[in-house]
Write the structure tokens for this entry.
Amino acid sequence: MKKIAITQRLIKNETYYEIREALDVSYCKLLDVCGFIPIVLPHEVNFEKYFNKFDINGLILTGGNDLYVFNKNELSKKRDDYEKKILKFCIKKKIPVFGM
């Protein structure tokens, strides 16, 4: 079975300070039905570790947070910076990338 890495959206908890990662359950359900194993990428962990350990065959950028250029907030910047690093890595390693 092929393994697909998938990014998550960043959400600020409004009740108390906490940044959360979120992924719509439909993504992993869809990947499973299509015969893929989803590898969910945690934002604060070095993604290269996952790509090397699990021999990732592709990447899905799920969308969510606005692009920082359109919405200058902390979470958009964090996510953009993280996903830019992943994209550069995937281009270098010739790993297919899908954007939602």
